[in-house]
Amino acid sequence: MQPKIKNSGFTLIELIIYIGIVSIILVSISYLMIDILGASVSNLAKTEVTQSIRLITTQLIKDVHRSADIQSVEPGRLILILPAGHVLNYSFDQQQKKLVSWIDDNDPIQIYSDDIEVEGEFSDLSFMDKTKTVNVNLSVSYKNPSNNQIYQANTIINLALELHGRR
Hints:
The chain has one domain (12-162). Helices cover 33% and strands 31% of the residues. It has 1 helix and 7 strands, in the order αβββββββ. The strands form 2 sheets. The protein has a 4-stranded antiparallel β-sheet with strand order 1-2-3-4, with no helix packed on it. The protein has a 3-stranded antiparallel β-sheet with strand order 5-6-7, covered by helices on one side. The protein is rod-shaped and about 120 Å long.
């Protein structure tokens, strides 16, 4: 009688099937992770735009409401007179797509992230001498130099703000 030799291990076919199944699972998990990361980046861009809109509109509302008078309104520039006599300037830089503000001769500041581009214009909606109202059109978008669809995030907002500081 011959002793039985027991072969333990995998056959070549079993090994190929195993590698195929594991490969399919790993590729599926990889695509899932890529989708999750893409959604995270997209949400980051949208959050950045939303927070910047909130910051810009809050600052504009506060500044216009506390102003005593409008000195000048041009499409790219708004000049307000504050109650203490200071001059508040807002200006759109069309080349760099920024909105900056400054008081008197101080340096211009930007109140939002450098990852954001802002375009827009101002107009005067005042009616005779009864109301002093400024219209602000804003277009806020996430900088997207590569034009990647994932980074597309923008918002357009229109505000009509009345001066309250002159009362």
